[in-house]
Automatic annotation (TrEMBL):
Pfam families: Esterase. This is Esterase family protein. InterPro entries: AB_hydrolase_fold, Esterase-like, Mycobacterial_A85_antigen. GO terms for molecular function: acyltransferase activity, transferring groups other than amino-acyl groups. It comes from the Bacteria.
Length: 293
């Protein structure tokens, strides 16, 4: 991708070929045909070491959403941490899917149908993975997570479709009040130029409104973990706002402000790599997607 594509708003390169030697062990780059985008969409998938041996075993899946300007060739540090943890017996065998949601789409469908990132993830990628691989094809075996735009997307998607997941991990992803941006007098200004003239579309893309609508399917059923660096000032305010909304809705969750760290993912992962997947594993265990650790 060039710098113009990366920085000038929504765009997408839906299939991105990895360089030789780029993929971590156990990871494959694949693609499926998206009817919503009328083209192929790439993803990377990590399969645990025993996948080809234990042919009768079905595995829980973690969907990892990338940040702004990125694509399916992301999250390789996550893969390496998970693979190491599985091999030393810290975590049970799991599948990790690295999705492609397009650049700066925030995993929302545009009203004009040009970018259908929500549909690509929810209605196409997840069913494709369940049909192609030996997954636990239910919410008790499915988690979603992401960093930055990916954390924002994972949060909103889990609020909108809580019955699909048992666990969500938002790492430093803004949680804005999207409905507050609705202004039909400014159709050419974001988010109006992306979500369009209908107020209903703003409500359906607002994590706070979705929390209210689906609270009975969220409370006690979807486990929520939110982390943010204390120096990540451009993201921390909306994350604190959503944390407060969860408290007011009596939705139990884990909230951590990491002292002294900013928005970059790697320093946070380096600090917590030994427990990086503990929350998902605990969630899967409580939901019944993992019988034994």
């Amino acid at each position: 991708m060039n710098q113009t594509q990366k920085n000038n708003g929504p765009s997408a390169i839906w299939v991105n070929e990895p360089n030789e030697g780029q993929l971590p062990e156990g990871t494959t780059h694949c693609a499926f045909h998206s009817s919503a985008q009328n083209q192929d969409v790439g993803y990377c998938i990590y399969l645990p070491p025993d996948y080809e041996i234990n042919t009768h075993q079905y595995y829980p899946v973690i969907y990892n959403l990338h940040g702004a300007g990125d694509n399916e060739l992301h999250g390789f540090d996550d893969v390496r941490v998970l693979d190491h943890g599985i091999r030393i017996g810290r975590w049970p065998p799991m599948i990790l899917v690295l999705a492609n949601g397009g650049m700066r789409t925030f995993y929302k469908n545009s009203y004009d149908g040009k970018f259908m990132s929500e549909t690509v993830i929810i209605d196409e990628l997840i069913p494709h993975i369940d049909q192609t691989y030996r997954t636990i094809a239910d919410n008790n075996g499915r988690c979603i997570e992401g960093h930055s735009m990916g954390g924002r997307g994972a949060t909103r998607l889990s609020m909108k479709f809580p019955w699909l997941f048992c666990s969500v991990f938002n790492l430093a992803g803004n949680v804005p009040r999207t409905l507050d941006g609705y202004d039909p007098s400014s159709p050419d200004t974001f988010p109006n130029n992306y979500l369009g003239p209908s107020k209903k579309n703003f409500i359906e893309n607002d994590a706070y409104e979705l929390l209210k609508t689906n609270v009975e399917q969220i409370r006690g059923k979807l486990r929520i973990q939110i982390w943010c660096g204390s120096q990540d000032l451009s993201h921390l305010m909306t994350i604190r706002d959503f944390h407060q909304a969860l408290l007011e809705a009596n939705v139990d969750h884990t909230f951590l402000e990491i002292e002294g760290l900013g928005h970059k993912k790697k320093p946070i992962m380096d600090k917590y790599r030994d427990i990086w997947f503990d929350y998902h594993v605990d969630s899967l265990t409580q939901a019944g997607g993992i019988i034994e650790k």
